[in-house]
Amino acid sequence: MRFPVYLHKTESNTYSGFVPDVVGCFFAGETVDDALTDASAAIDSHVESSTDAGYEVPVATNIETHIEDENCQGGYWAFVDIDLSRYEGKAVKLNITLPQNLLTKIDSYVDHHREYGSRSGFLAALARKELANA
Question: Residue ranges of the HicB-like antitoxin of toxin-antitoxin system domain (predicted)?
């Protein structure tokens, strides 16, 4: 998930910022790159502690959602990509039924798109995409 982050240059010529979609998530760094690295770690830590406590994973919105916010003026916008799949819980084996021709097409697609890793990875990615749009 791509989280928009807002950062600004401080009086001491370092950078600090926050993640508008993740309440209480702040970050800082000596350079912009350092700040964005810290932003990634901050989001990751926040999501991990939130899901451990039983809360939902925050949903990233677009920059336009926050562009008029008085706390987001005079600085810079960036995006930080976070892989949220590791917070979905442990894998569970299940038995499903699919038409043979569909299964053959899925397997062929996965063979040519190794980023999915497996049939299960492909089906999980599609489910995540659809659920994010819900």
Answer: 3-127
| Residue 26 confidence (pLDDT) | 97
Q: What is the pLDDT of residue 116?
A: 87
pLDDT computed for residue 89 by the predictor: 73
Q: What is the CATH number of domain 2-87?
A: 3.30.160.250
Question: Residue 108: its pLDDT value, please?
Answer: 95
User: Who contacts 90 (Cβ-Cβ below 8 Å, separation ≥6)?
Assistant: none
Q: What angle do CA 122, 123, 128 make, to 5 degrees?
A: 100
CA separation for the pair 25, 111 (Å, rounded): 39
Band of residue 52 on the pLDDT scale cut at 50, 70, 90: confident
Q: Let me know if 2 is exposed, middle or buried by CB neighbors in 10 A (0-12, 13-18, 19+).
A: exposed
Nearest to 55 by CA among 83, 23, 80: 23
What are the counts of helices (DSSP H) followed by strands (DSSP E) for the chain? 3, 4
